[in-house]
Amino acid sequence: MKDNRITLRAVVVGAFFAALFAAISIYTSSHLSIIMTATQIPVLPYLLLILTVFLLNPLLRLVRFVRAFSLSELMIIFIMGMVSAGIPNFGMVEMLLPMVGSLSSREWNNPQSEWNRYIVPYVNDAYFISVPGTQQAAADYYKLRDKQVLMERIHNAATRVITRRAAAAEIAERLQQMESDVGESPSRAQTLALRRLRLERENVRNEIAGIESLWSELAQTPDGQLDLNEVLAEYPALIKSQQQLVAVAQAKLDDKEQQAFKKVELYRRGLPRGMNAYPGILPLPQDDATSYFNRLRRLRDGRRSLELLQEARDTEHDEAVQRMLAEAERELASLTNAEIYETRMELARQEDALLLEQYRKLDAELLELNTRRRQAERREAAELNRGVRAIMRSIERVVRARQELHEDQQRWLREFDAANNVKQLTDGIAALRVDWEQGSLDRSSLRSAINAMIPAFAKADISLRRYFVGEIPWGHWARPLGRWALLIVMTYVAIMSLNVLIFRQWAHNEMIIYPLAELPKSLVNSSHGGIPDVFRNGLFWAGLTISGLVMGWNLLCMSQFVPGLTPFDLRNAWSTYVSGTPFRILSGMRSEVFFTMIGLAFLIPKNVSFSLWFFFVLYMAQLVLLDWSGIMEREGSAQWWYLANVRSSQGAGAMFVFAAVIFFKCRRYILCALTPGVLRGLEDSEQKELRLASIAFLAASLGIVMQMWLDMGAHLLHSIYFYIMLILMTLAIIRVMVEGGLPALQTWITPVHVLRAFFGLHAKHSVVPLFTPLMLYCGVLFLDLKNFIAPAMANAIKLRDDFHMRRGVFHISVIVAILLAAAVAGITSLLMSYDRGADAMSNFFYVSQPRNAFDTITSMTKNPPEASMSSGMWMLGGGAFTGLLIFMRQFIFWVPHPIGMVMLVNPIMRAYWFSIFLGWLANTAVTKYGHKETYSRATGLFIGLVVGELLIVLLSTIISMITGENVLIDLNRN
Predict the structure, then answer these.
(1) This prediction's pTM
(2) What is the rounded CA–CA span in Å between residue 942 and residue 225?
(3) pLDDT tens digits, residue range 475-502?
(4) DSSP character at residue 971
(5) 761 Cβ neighbours under 8 A, 6+ residues apart
(6) Parallel, antiparallel, or unpaired: how do β-strands 224-225 and 220-221 relate?
(7) What DSSP character marks residue 504?
(8) Which of 296, 651, 670, 950 is deepest in the core (most CB within 10 A)?
(9) Is residue 632 within 8 Å of 586, Cβ to Cβ?
(10) Which runs of E-coded beta strand occur in 181-262?
(11) 969 with 41: CB under 8 angstroms?
């Protein structure tokens, strides 16, 4: 067997772990607020790779029962986990499901938020949990209501014109009469009265001018000018008729809203008591052996009882009915013992009371010891400190015991309810049997009674659906997820195809290095077979020890296993040092030590790493100069949807120029389906792959635009504009991530930022309703790009090329991993949401993110921002400077790489720049004073820094899962 072959077992193992990692990611995100996939270095796939090459493979070689994994097998398993890692959280699932399940939230979609007015009429309701026809009902209602408001304004304006004209005529008449009465020699009082009356006449004339101007504006219709008298005569009846139409439309909208509210309420608050989100076949954390097997017994015996009831209902032999009813009753008899659970709950209540009393005593002792400690001498205080710690440990044990007791009580309460429900069924069957024996039931009445009883079996936890599927209303999600699935699949096809098309230009023609692909290669490559070379390098273990000890100490401090310890401050914020100085504008900056970034920066080419930190330092100098010149006193706010500051605006201009140049260089491959001659000289298999990728990219692009236009409801030109801008953004992001080796990226720039900067969102051609659906599409797939799937796909293709994997099998493996991860993550998220309520899940994903998205769109529609000349100028400046850098680099070797300018769009650079500087400094020193062997050995030190931090992140996650509290050690930086 060839070493580069992708085997079936590798694909199966990779698929299994992709699914497992997806479920774990959802669990840790929602239960512990730990996002393990917030970077391009997903913790679980990397640790699986390390454990396999360092422990599992040597063990397999030793026992020889199972063949050790080859390099290609290791890589395809890793690739499947890596590419699919971001899907559960930022990549798709937890960005999509809460948004789909929030538009019709009763608490959020209300008259104050006005989502029904500014969002619902402009998005296809089929993309959300709703009721068919809601969009049209909302559009009809607000169209009729707006017409009513306009008619009322016209009528009010006409009425005011008439009344003010009459008032003006009356004042003119009074003035004329007064002037006639006073003659030529008025008294002082008469003069004042005349003056007041003339002033009043002037005010009324000015008011009439304004009212008539408003009337002229309102009265102008496409059919001509409205007649004033006709409006006064006819509009009261028309307004009344319109009010009736509005009332009917409102009732229709309210009815659909109420139906949608009920659906969404189940998702946001969880299923009511007595309903199970999880299938009964799953052993759940709240189960013990008794409760799990009781559930199985209820299904087994209950199904037999149900079958006997159905036979008794359908049999034509009267003498068999009594036997069947008696057997059905006996099958349930053993499941009706509720007293045992009632006794257990009572004992638990008594034990809880004792624990509560113990807790109060310990708390009182702790208070007394703390009081004595404050007044004690040093030697006595040390002894009291030991006593305080002992009491605190005792309090923790009592709290845990009460927690476990409460969980037991909840489990026994569920069993008590189930037994009571079964007892009610048993009593009902017994009553039927007695009535049948006594002849008080005829055949028809018996059938009706049994039919009425059958639904009660599901309530008594006797249901195949409840046991194997659970009681989640999956039908609520079928319509919206079907629509989104089509759009997302086409997007992923376009992204993957684009990566295939640009790979040859980048990897073979431009010879760029993929640092994030070099890291897993370093962990598996072995020149002698067996243990990879990096694990034989002493500097690797030194690096692992350095990051492991530092981060391990911080983990120990944050876990509070030993209270009072102080962690290392690795953030090194500048605010303390620059506040009140001429450099106060840099108070938000920091010099963060991030071991993973230091390790990666060493692997990055020096010209790239230099550019990344140099342009950020240059930006900080720019901020200081702007502050000193009085142009700007602070950095300025920026956000994902439409606000850009100086940094993100310059980065946006740089990014789009950079992307345009990239597209131009790769155009012959991207469009090779139209010009196949450009592929001459390549291998047949690569030519075929590129042609198919080009066709897939063009077809998916067309499909995405058509769906956004014809199905989502966006304007065609905006759909084209958004898609082109998103593809350019994707190209730039892929390039800076694979060439710059950054662990994560955010870009507070979207197509809306550019539109707002140059055109504003108030003009007729750029109002928000034209592209509201497109903003939601961006919100799901292109908003928080910390683990964007596009760079992961690019690194995967690089690994495939380096390990010479078969193209077709590789793509099938990646597709399987993506589909499985999406399915498992989606199902896990819905199971947990319906069990706990989405409101109790991760606050960022399930509450703030969807609500902020809809609120922001509403705000933009109600108060559309005008064009921002400053943002536009900074964008043009950033783009022009980047274009100049790209041009000059063709002739002058020392001109900095433009990647640092592009990364001004990335706010996480605030946390990365100093660590990149340290990695660049180390790389420069090693390459200047060492040789190739020195660099190779030093690489082990920096890979060790990465691995050491990964191990501590895993350990912190395990501790968090055990203790139920997040100890905040991860790779996520903001």
Answers:
(1) 0.89
(2) 78
(3) 999 999 999 999 999 999 999 999 999 9
(4) S
(5) 642, 752, 755, 767, 768, 860, 864, 865, 866
(6) antiparallel
(7) I
(8) 651
(9) no
(10) 220-221, 224-225
(11) no
